[in-house]
Write a structure and sequence with these properties.
This protein is mostly helical. It has one domain (2-154): Homeodomain-like (Arc Repressor Mutant, subunit A), CATH 1.10.10.60. It has helices at 50-60, 69-75, 80-91, 95-113, 118-124, 130-141, 145-154, and strands spanning 2-3, 6-7, 20-26, 36-41. The protein has a two-stranded antiparallel sheet. The longest helix has 19 residues, at 95-113. The radius of gyration is 16 Å and the shape is elongated.
Length: 155
């Protein structure tokens, strides 16, 4: 199943991440100058589960800068407080942190696979513009977006 450009596995065993995205965690190459990769779990949407439905909704609307935790709570038909609590239980992180991380992952993908400028990447990732994206990108990835693109292409 593909949701928001992500290919999702169909392993329904309890307690297991059901899909993941390989993403570089470091743009500083190893001894051979190769980019390093780790798996980052992304919960798989399950039909009928409110949190999974909200995750699927978020991934489908990630490019919308108006998408916030309030809209995710509404998509899950929950109050903001209940949604926050249940989302943390299901994923281990706050909904806002998860949303920002997903947007940065989308930005990484676009920087790797397109020639779009940083502002266009930011808009397609839901940040609105490059100024809004850069601090989140730098905090999570460790380098600014353009440096990430340059290092990824050099690897």
């Amino acid at each position: 199943m593909a949701v928001g450009g992500l290919s999702l596995a169909h392993d329904r065993r309890p307690g297991r991440p059901l899909c993941s995205l390989p993403r570089p965690y470091s743009v500083k190459g190893g001894a051979g100058g190769q980019a390093q990769f780790i798996e980052r779990p992304v919960p798989e949407p399950k039909v009928g589960d409110a949190i999974s439905d909200a995750v699927a909704y978020a991934l489908a609307h990630l490019d919308d800068p108006g998408l916030d935790v309030g809209r995710l709570a509404a998509a899950a038909h929950m109050s903001r407080r209940t949604f926050d609590r249940r989302f943390r239980q299901a994923t281990g992180v706050s909904p806002l942190r998860w949303l920002v991380t997903q947007r940065v992952l989308r930005a990484q993908h676009l920087l790797e696979s397109t020639d779009l400028g940083v502002d266009a990447v930011a808009r397609r990732s839901g940040f609105g513009d490059g100024v809004a994206m850069r601090p989140h990108f730098r905090r999570l990835v460790g380098v600014p977006p353009q440096a990430y693109r340059d290092a990824f292409r050099a690897a």
